[in-house]
């Protein structure tokens, strides 16, 4: 796989990582992405800002807009790339549960 990145990377900051959970704050400038990844754990996302996501799932993509403070949960095994499709910086908290 190429090391070339067309988009700037989102910036993860691990806030807590213990036996129960891993809590990461993700900060994105406009156009930034997480890079393609697979979630090994189930998780909850809580937006800290209004978020305009472009979710790339294999050959398909979809737009998802979430308001600050809204939350959603997904099971382990999710495979995607998350992109800030908006014109403003965005951030969210990701809580991965280990038990």
TrEMBL record:
Q: Which UniProt keywords apply?
A: Isomerase
Molecular functions per Gene Ontology? isomerase activity
All copies of the Cupin type-2 domain together span: 25-95
Q: Which InterPro entries match?
A: Cupin_2, RmlC-like_jellyroll, RmlC_Cupin_sf
A Pfam family (short name) is Cupin_2
The residues that cross the membrane are none
The protein here is known as Mannose-6-phosphate isomerase-like protein (Cupin superfamily)
